[in-house]
Amino acid sequence: MAAQSVLCGLIGDGIDGSFSPALHEAEGHAQGMNYVYRLLDLERLHGAAATVEGIIDLARQWGFDGLNVTHPYKQQVMAYLDELSPDAARLEAVNTVVFTAGRAVGHNTDWTGFGSSLGRELPGASLDRVVQIGAGGAGVAVAYSALSRGAGHLTVTDVDPDRAEHCRDTMRKLFPGSVVDAVPASEIAGPLAEASGLINATPIGMVGFPGTPVPVELLRPDLWVADVIYRPIETPLIRAARALGAPTLGGAGMNVFQAADAFQLFTGVTPDFERMYAHVLMLVDQQSRRAA
């Protein structure tokens, strides 16, 4: 019996450092597939392929099974798809496109990735009152995930007040049974003092973005702390929270779960999450050693 052949890729800008090709191809090969995953950096392509509309059309013609989508195209790509999954439509963001019978269908696995990671690593975490820093594309997905898992009160803040308010308004419509509010970044200390959990959905703490999204003096041992960043595996925020004895959740799990969910959409095959998780930890370690 011939092995299943799969052709996928990632569209975005400045994506040379992405782990997606290695992660997807290794899992595909472990499943006995002929799995090819290509980086499609629109900053480096030319002609029609240098536009979102063009690359979607070409992917159809070239026989791609699917595409992942990253910054800054998660909203823009929606205009060139035939259909959106209910969650992608609610979130107004797509990070996974599946090509089936000539149709391009958009999905969002960012929110499922965070929720699965939270449930796996912090199964007993209280969602009574959660503070979230960051309301961009990842932030909206994380907010949706937290509320889907039963967050009773979510406070959102962002350096861009309009973005925080848009996230608040969107979540209020989708989750009328929960309390969702937005506060200026300068006023986060009050809500954080009453919170059971803190989520960082900003780039602060990632390589090239030093610091912590909130002053570490605001952290407490009884405040669980989650970060969407996975490079480094332990951000300064996570390190500070762990030093206090607080429950923590790094971003590696979200990254792997969203990739695993996309893999299943592309192939129809359930991936081995633990194998993918071990692989991404190895990739991060190798990158850290090269940078040292």
Structural write-up:
There is one protein chain. With about 290 residues, this protein is of the alpha/beta class. The chain folds into 2 domains: about 140 residues, Leucine Dehydrogenase, chain A, domain 1 (Rossmann fold, 3-Layer(aba) Sandwich); about 140 residues, Rossmann fold (3-Layer(aba) Sandwich). About 40% of the residues lie in helices and about 20% in strands. The protein has 10 helices and 12 strands. A 6-stranded mixed β-sheet has the order 2-1-3-5-6-4, with helices on both faces. A 6-stranded parallel β-sheet has the order 9-8-7-10-11-12, sandwiched between helices. Helix 4 crosses helix 5, helix 4 crosses helix 9 and helix 9 crosses helix 10. It is globular. It starts with a strand and ends with a helix. The mean pLDDT is about 95.
List the helices and strands and how they pair.
Blueprint: E1 5-12, H1 20-30, E2 34-41, H2 52-62, E3 66-69, E4 83-84, H3 86-91, E5 96-100, E6 103-107, H4 110-121, E7 129-133, H5 137-148, E8 153-157, H6 161-174, E9 179-182, H7 189-194, E10 197-200, E11 224-227, H8 236-244, E12 248-249, H9 252-267, H10 273-291
Parallel strand pairs: 1-2, 1-3, 4-6, 7-8, 7-10, 8-9, 10-11, 11-12
Antiparallel strand pairs: 3-5, 5-6
Domain SDH C-terminal: 251-281
Subunit structure: Homodimer.
Protein name: Shikimate dehydrogenase (NADP(+))
